[in-house]
Write a structure and sequence with these properties.
single chain; 371 residues; mainly alpha; two-stranded antiparallel ribbon; 3% strand; globular
């Protein structure tokens, strides 16, 4: 919105209002989106938490077969804290991004759509006091449809890269500059897999206080830098990346995600006063996946979001092996609970997973130059 004001006053011959010139700079607007989102989340936090406690009563249901300490220590903690995150993320983006940019609306569509699905899932769990939410198959179907709608927006309305107009439906590969595979409209399925996978991977990771929040911020920081680089012809050409016109604008969205995460961490740091729930986890994971699709760096997400991948694989492997043999590979899945069962304290698991997430993000960013 503020960018629109800058354009309006510039066209009206008011370019002498020098302070408005700051709005030209993507870096300034990204920084302000971080600040705005954080302030919004922190400001609404205490009142929202008290309201959620009054409405939810017993709070988020805790798995009976889970870590016994969680049943006593975390019982009664309200969920749906993702509403706070979404408020900061969406408002921060709308205030500082160029709202004529289709990439902004595509990632917001995924974020809001997945946030709504997560909210319905959390609401079902809280009202029924069960860990089972809405139908898993139905949720996956709706997630896929939302993802494909966002990808269709990009394919139909985004500016075509001049060097390769088919790039919007192509898969690129890290380390290999010339490796591009055009999937045409089959890209809808691939892109939906990335977005849906990202959403559910973050959802699996969200099991300990602060465990998902910081890795999401780390991934958002990495992809904010990637969006800035691939959306700038000079930097993209220097790094031998595929130039994607206009995609740099979603660096502001990534900034708002960082700010919203910082604000939420104020209340989610151990011991958490509120959980983000599926409302936040699905929205944040889907948003990261959508940014990966928009920047044409989908495969790099497997490295930057390697922690989320490991959490998801631990669940898949555990379930598959148990069905096949009747035995378990991990003491408990997702894998963060395995380490708790080994005797690691919750804070040890969380901080060590943060460290792993940082290292993976740096490794993912290194692939931008290694060509």
């Amino acid at each position: 919105m503020f960018y629109w004001l800058y354009e309006h006053f510039s066209m009206g011959g008011h370019s002498h209002v020098t302070v408005l010139n700051l709005l030209r700079y993507l870096t300034f607007r990204t920084a302000m989106s971080i600040f705005t989102a954080q302030v919004i989340v922190v400001a609404m936090g205490s009142r929202f938490i008290r309201w959620m406690q009054a409405k939810q009563g017993k709070g988020q249901p805790i798995r009976a077969e889970g870590i016994q300490r969680h049943i006593t220590e975390k019982a009664g903690t309200p969920t749906m804290g993702g509403v706070m995150i979404l408020a900061g993320l969406i408002v921060g983006t709308l205030l500082w991004a160029d709202l004529s940019n289709v990439y902004v609306w595509a990632v917001l569509l995924v974020t809001a759509g997945y946030g709504l699905l997560g909210f319905l899932d959390d609401y079902s769990k809280v009202t029924k006091q069960t860990t089972d939410g809405i139908s898993g198959k139905m949720r996956l179907l709706l997630e896929a449809l939302i993802a494909m709608a966002a990808i269709s927006l990009i394919i139909l309305f985004a500016a075509k890269p001049p060097e390769d107009p088919s790039l919007l439906t192509s898969v690129t590969f890290p380390l290999f500059k010339g490796a591009v595979v055009n999937l045409s409209w089959f890209y809808l399925l691939f892109g939906a897999f990335v977005i849906v996978g990202g959403a559910n991977a973050v959802n699996f990771t969200d099991g300990l206080d602060g465990l998902a929040t910081v890795p999401v911020m780390i991934a958002a920081s990495a992809y904010g830098l990637i969006a800035y680089l691939v959306g700038n012809f000079v930097f993209a050409n220097y790094l031998q990346l595929h130039f994607v016109p206009g995609v740099g604008e979603i660096a502001i969205y990534c900034g708002a995600m960082i700010g919203a995460g910082l604000g939420f961490l104020w209340y989610n740091a151990p011991p958490a006063r509120i959980f983000m729930g599926d409302t936040g986890a699905l929205a944040l994971g889907g948003g990261i996946g959508a940014v990966a699709v928009a920047t044409r760096q989908e495969i790099v997400l497997g490295v930057i979001g390697g922690l989320f991948v490991a959490e998801t694989l631990s669940v898949v492997i555990q379930v598959a092996w148990f069905k096949r043999t009747g035995r378990r590979i991990f003491l408990m899945a997702p894998i963060h609970h395995h380490f708790e069962k080994l005797g690691w304290s919750e804070s040890t698991v969380v901080i060590r997973f943060w460290i792993v997430s940082i290292m993976l993000a740096l490794l993912g960013l290194a692939t931008l130059k290694l060509r």
